[in-house]
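Saturday, quiet lab. Running sequence design on the structure tokens for the scaffold JK sent over.
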């Protein structure tokens, strides 16, 4: 399923060297602190005489249609995740600089480089693929401390080319792209938020010696076994309903207006609460999905409310980030700023005391007409997971229809 993200803003300042900003394919790399590069691809083209950028990860395209030119510097402002690029263009036409990403209270900075006229994300250094790994794999990902979590890897291979994703109890790893060369697997993704690189050895129906590079420093290990019936259990991270007391809250929306669940517009409606944050890539996939759902079900008595837990408790910072999300996905339902940071260990108690701790973003709550929590969906299997995404959509719509029948009766 092709995913087009058109609201990504890339501002490229190129003046005297503008002729060296080549059209065509580019290969970018964010360089981790351990000097490991995480590769991604993008294209530069022209529309109405102006440059257009498209970052590619598998079937996803992140389209950038705002390009400005000045001097020999390059600045990429990502729409989500509070990240950006600063670079210059060398005499050879190469972009060199840094990628900056805001965390809770600081900026994480990594080196960045992009080279024109390179189509491939990885070189087939070991030749043609000697095995095809298309299908489902039961996987296990382990931290350096030995803490393991189960996952399901879903791969699609054509020749050397490989795409896929990993599904865990807390969400998926979105669109991964790479190759199989010989019996080696190489996969990566970059979307402004996620910075992932996988490598491993394929041994018949097993994947061994896997390394999973996450962000600027972290390295996990992983293994997998081919299994067409591979599944994932989300019960361990699904919050428990502690009380059947009605949910009640009042938070400001992105325009500063106070919105309460007791407002007239929510009376006698089936309410879907989206627990999310603008820093969360899976939440962005879910927001696109829920925007489509709202367009189809609002007239049937469904209301959706986004409850945002941001990196910062600063309202204006949260407001800026969330407004970009709303514009990108044309969100028509209210997105409210809780004012409770994601790092606050009491975030659930302060906002939704009717349930136990929220461990997973996104988490979706279904409320009946009495505003009681009646069902919880944990995580979101996005379009990069193919069959798992289709299964999630079917389950979500089945839940809506079932609860709507209860409301109507």
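Result came back. Writing it out in full:
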């Amino acid at each position: 399923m092709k995913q087009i993200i058109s609201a990504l803003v890339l501002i490229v300042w190129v003046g005297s060297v503008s002729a060296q900003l080549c059209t065509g394919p580019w290969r970018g790399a964010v360089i981790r602190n351990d000097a490991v590069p995480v590769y991604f691809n993008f294209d530069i083209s022209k529309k109405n005489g102006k440059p257009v950028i498209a970052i590619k990860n598998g079937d996803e395209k992140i389209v950038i249609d705002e390009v400005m030119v000045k001097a020999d510097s390059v600045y990429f402002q990502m729409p989500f995740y509070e990240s950006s690029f600063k670079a210059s263009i060398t005499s050879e036409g190469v972009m060199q600089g840094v990628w900056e990403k805001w965390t809770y209270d600081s900026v994480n900075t990594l080196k960045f480089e992009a080279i024109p006229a390179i189509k491939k994300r990885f070189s087939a250094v070991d030749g043609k693929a000697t095995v095809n790994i298309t299908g489902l794999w039961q996987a296990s990902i382990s931290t350096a401390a030995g803490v393991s979590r189960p996952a399901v890897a879903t791969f699609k291979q054509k020749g050397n080319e490989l795409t896929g994703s990993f599904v865990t109890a807390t969400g998926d790893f979105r669109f991964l792209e790479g190759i199989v060369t010989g019996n080696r697997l190489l996969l990566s993704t970059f979307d402004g938020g996620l910075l992932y690189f996988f490598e491993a050895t394929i041994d018949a129906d097993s994947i061994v010696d896997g390394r999973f590079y996450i962000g600027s420093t972290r390295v996990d290990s992983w293994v997998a076994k081919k299994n067409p019936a591979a599944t994932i259990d989300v019960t361990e991270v699904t919050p428990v309903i502690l009380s059947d007391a009605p949910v009640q809250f009042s938070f400001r929306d992105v325009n500063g207006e106070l919105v309460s669940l007791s407002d007239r517009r929510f009376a006698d409606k089936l309410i879907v609460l989206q627990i999310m944050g603008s820093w969360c890539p899976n939440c962005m996939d879910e927001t696109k999905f829920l925007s489509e759902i709202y367009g189809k079900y609002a007239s049937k008595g469904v209301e959706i409310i986004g409850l945002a837990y941001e990196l910062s408790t600063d309202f204006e910072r949260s407001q800026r980030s969330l407004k970009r999300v709303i514009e990108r996905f044309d969100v028509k339902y209210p997105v409210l700023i809780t004012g409770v940071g994601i790092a606050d260990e009491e975030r659930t108690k302060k906002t939704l005391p009717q349930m136990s701790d929220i461990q997973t973003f996104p988490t979706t709550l279904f409320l009946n007409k009495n505003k009681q929590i009646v069902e919880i969906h944990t995580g979101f299997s996005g379009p990069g997971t193919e069959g798992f995404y289709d299964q999630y959509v079917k389950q979500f719509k089945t839940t809506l229809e079932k609860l709507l029948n209860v409301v109507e009766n």
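Notes for JK: The helical segments are 281-297, 315-329, 347-351, 387-408. Residues 387-408 form the longest helix (22 residues). Ask whether to fix the surface positions before the next round.
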